[in-house]
């Protein structure tokens, strides 16, 4: 009598593996919803057409990146995709879904860190002056838009952080905001008198006009009484900058960059700007705020005894 055949062991389907990986990022690593969505978007293309996870090898990873390059993807995007693939294959190998870790041998192009154009201090002042004039009649949407611009430029917060603020996150007495950033890291940022005035007017006359029964405790509200959508906030910034002749067409990221750059030009300490922006690494702040070699040379010559 012949023995029954050995059962065939197959790797779990790629869709199930991807779902498990994303749950790992969210629940065990504490990654934000935005980060998890970015991983899903990148890895879905990698795993499309793959029958099981054992098919994910170095050749597949290289073909995937090459196809992206042929499609015209930038170096930064390809580098991000390669990093996502390496994180996934390391996890898949560690959890027994891959016999090896092909991502460990995957090279990726170094992104060119092009610094975006940002408005000058004079252009930023003109944008805020125009927004203030538009809010002179206390229209609730105009008051909200003024506050969006003032807080983005005053604090350098990300637009998602701004739209995620609740009323309890505002300390008007100290002119400070409690912000939850990437990786659920909490920090405190401060703002000046103009932003404080815009906040006071919004809370007194703008927000009550837009609030509805059942509105959330969000600081910023949309016209229907819900939490302000980040897409609406981006539109506010683009529209405000387009009204100033010569100002670059940038979104909230540009105002964040401008806030940090202008502070450094005014003599702010680099580590303070790092804390303001919520960067985990000082090198990120140095790149983000366009600290040029020439500027570092000037500081070195002024401070070092043997410069």
Counted beta strands: 3
What gap, in angstroms, lies between the N and C termini?
89 Å
Rg from alpha-carbon coordinates: 24 Å
CATH class of the largest domain: Mainly Alpha
How many individual helices?
13
By secondary-structure content and strand pairing, the structural class works out as: mainly alpha
**Name of the CATH architecture of the largest domain:** Orthogonal Bundle
Helix content: 55-70%
Q: Which outline best applies?
A: globular
User: How would you write the strand order of the largest sheet?
Assistant: 1-2-3
Name of the CATH superfamily of the largest domain: Intergrase catalytic core
Uncertain parts: 1-11
The biggest beta sheet is recorded as: 3 strands, antiparallel
Pfam family, one: Phage_int_SAM_1
Subunit structure: Forms a cyclic heterotetrameric complex composed of two molecules of XerC and two molecules of XerD.
Organism: Pseudonocardia kunmingensis
Keywords: Cell cycle, Cell division, Chromosome partition, Cytoplasm, DNA integration, DNA recombination, DNA-binding
In short:
This protein has 307 residues and is mainly alpha-helical. The chain has 13 helices and 3 strands; from the N terminus they run H-H-H-H-H-H-H-E-E-E-H-H-H-H-H-H.
What does it look like?
30% of the residues are buried. This protein has helices at 14-28, 33-47, 58-70, 75-94, 121-134, 140-155, 159-163, 193-210, 230-242, 252-265, 270-277, 282-288, 293-303; strands at residues 170-171, 176-180, 186-190. It is mainly α. It has 2 domains: 14-105, DNA polymerase, domain 1, CATH 1.10.150.130; 121-303, Orthogonal Bundle (hpI Integrase, Chain A), CATH 1.10.443. The chain has 13 helices and 3 strands, in the order H-H-H-H-H-H-H-E-E-E-H-H-H-H-H-H. A hairpin with a 4-residue loop joins strand 1 (170-171) and strand 2 (176-180). Helix 3 (58-70) packs antiparallel against helix 4 (75-94), helix 6 packs across helix 10 (252-265) and helix 10 (252-265) runs antiparallel to helix 11. The chain is globular, with a radius of gyration of 24 Å. A 3-stranded antiparallel beta sheet has the order 1-2-3, with no helix packed on it. Mean pLDDT is 85; it is low at 1-11. The longest helix is centred in the first third of the chain and has 20 residues, at 75-94. The N and C termini lie far apart (89 Å).
């Amino acid at each position: 009598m012949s023995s029954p055949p050995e059962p065939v062991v197959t790797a779990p389907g790629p869709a199930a593996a991807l779902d498990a990986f994303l749950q790992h990022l969210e629940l065990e690593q504490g990654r934000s919803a935005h980060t998890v969505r970015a991983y899903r978007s990148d890895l879905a293309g990698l795993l499309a057409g793959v029958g099981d996870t054992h098919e994910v090898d170095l050749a597949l990873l290289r073909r995937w990146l090459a196809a992206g390059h042929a499609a015209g993807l930038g170096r930064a995007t390809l580098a991000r995709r390669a990093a996502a693939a390496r994180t996934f294959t390391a996890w898949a190998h560690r959890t027994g879904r891959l016999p090896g870790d092909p991502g460990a041998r995957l090279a990726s192009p170094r992104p060119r860190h092009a610094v975006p154009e940002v408005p000058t201090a004079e252009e930023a002042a003109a944008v805020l002056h125009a927004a203030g004039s538009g809010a002179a009649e206390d229209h609730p949407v105009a008051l909200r838009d003024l506050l969006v611009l003032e807080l983005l430029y005053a604090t350098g917060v990300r637009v998602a952080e701004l739209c995620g603020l609740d009323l309890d996150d505002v300390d008007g007495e100290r002119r400070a905001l409690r912000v939850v950033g990437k990786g659920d890291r909490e920090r405190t940022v401060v703002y000046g008198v103009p932003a404080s005035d815009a906040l006071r007017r919004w809370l007194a006359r703008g927000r009550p006009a837009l609030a509805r029964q059942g509105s959330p405790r969000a600081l910023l509200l949309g016209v229907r009484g819900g939490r302000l959508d980040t897409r609406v906030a981006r539109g506010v910034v683009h529209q405000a900058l387009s009204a100033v002749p010569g100002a670059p067409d940038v979104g909230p990221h540009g105002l964040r960059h401008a806030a940090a750059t202008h502070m450094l030009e005014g003599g702010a300490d680099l580590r303070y700007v790092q804390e303001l922006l919520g960067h985990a690494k000082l090198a990120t702040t140095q790149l983000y705020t366009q600290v040029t070699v020439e500027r570092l040379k000037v500081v070195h010559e002024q401070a070092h005894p043997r410069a």
